Amino acid sequence: MKIQGLAAKTKGSQLEAYSYESPSPENFQCLIKVLACGICHSDIHMIDNDWGISNYPIIPGHEVIGEVVEIGSQVHHIKVGDRVGVGWQRTACLSCRDCLRGNENLCNDIQALIATGPGGFADYLEMDSRFAFPIPDGIKTNVAGPLLCGGITVYSALRYAGMGSGLEIGIIGVGGLGHLNLAWRPSVLPMGGNASFNCKLHRLYVKM
Ligand SMILES: [Zn+2]
Ligand SMILES: [Zn+2]
């Protein structure tokens, strides 16, 4: 099928309409109808080729929320009609030591969504279903996207630090990632940076 997206055709250029052909999903692949997609500064880094890994034309977008519309024969954990989220990873080998420990982000064969193919600024996205995660009904589509990149990044840090209920933590610098931490843990204290901004932000999230 033909997928319509928005792409930067050269380094640092504006996004323009761009379409590409995508085959029907096979094996573990799935096709997702994009409902919403967040924007992350890594999208800008990739458009500008700041990391030297960009392939143009590049369709950014790695905070994708969408509906599964087609699945390959090996896909069992999600089904057509499910609402799923996709983050930075398109796929990984799933058999190396890091993958088997659940650290697929450290896999030598990791494929980043927007470095190895088109991302979510498009009407559809095809990728490895094993990196598409069901989104609970209680989370709205239009706010879920950032959880797939900034959200998982801070959640992972909390988890690896052994955080549990009753413990207090501080966040140094409340930016794109840190504010998500405040959003779901009002007991977290913002530290550093602009103190009065931090206080206002903290009061806001405690009220929520
Ligand atoms: Zn990101
Ligand atoms: Zn691996």
TrEMBL record:
<protein>
    <submittedName>
        <fullName>Alcohol dehydrogenase catalytic domain-containing protein</fullName>
    </submittedName>
</protein>
<dbReference type="InterPro" id="IPR013154">
    <property type="entry name" value="ADH-like_N"/>
</dbReference>
<dbReference type="InterPro" id="IPR047109">
    <property type="entry name" value="CAD-like"/>
</dbReference>
<dbReference type="InterPro" id="IPR002328">
    <property type="entry name" value="ADH_Zn_CS"/>
</dbReference>
<keyword id="KW-0862">Zinc</keyword>
<keyword id="KW-0560">Oxidoreductase</keyword>
<feature type="domain" description="Alcohol dehydrogenase-like N-terminal">
    <location>
        <begin position="29"/>
        <end position="137"/>
    </location>
</feature>
<dbReference type="Pfam" id="PF08240">
    <property type="entry name" value="ADH_N"/>
</dbReference>
<keyword id="KW-0479">Metal-binding</keyword>
<dbReference type="InterPro" id="IPR011032">
    <property type="entry name" value="GroES-like_sf"/>
</dbReference>
